[in-house]
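Lecture 7 notes: from sequence to structure.
We start with the chain below.
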Amino acid sequence: MIRTVLNCVLTALILLGMVACRSEPPEQRLRQTIAAMQEAVEAGRPRDFMESVSADFVGNDGLDKPGLHNLLKAQLLLNSKVAIQTGPVSVDLQGDTATVRFSVLLAGGNRGLLPERGQMQEVTSGWRERDGAWQVYSASWKPVGE
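Predicted structure tokens for the same chain:
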């Protein structure tokens, strides 16, 4: 009887361990990373945003990771309040890489509830997954309609 109870407990622990070890699908983890980056910008935490940017990042006009960090910090200094609204996010997974496309409305200002500045951009970004974490390694953006 004790052996049966112990076997049941052991089986339950193994099953719980298997469920706990099951990771989320890659696309869901990527979408969570993008959401966390958006939250970091809106909260004024550029360092948290940059954790998901690859060391070999390349953006518009050869913008590299340090340049992106400086651009982000400058925008956060210029705008005490930043809001980001993304349109539908399209994810095209290819193994451990992905292409993500979306439109984004960036708004900022220093006073009141209404933004003083805003722009709508179309973004295409390249991502790679390493050790279960997604990092953006390339991005290009342009005003909507161009």
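Points to note: Helices lie at 2-21, 26-42, 46-50, 65-78. The first helix runs from residue 2 to 21.
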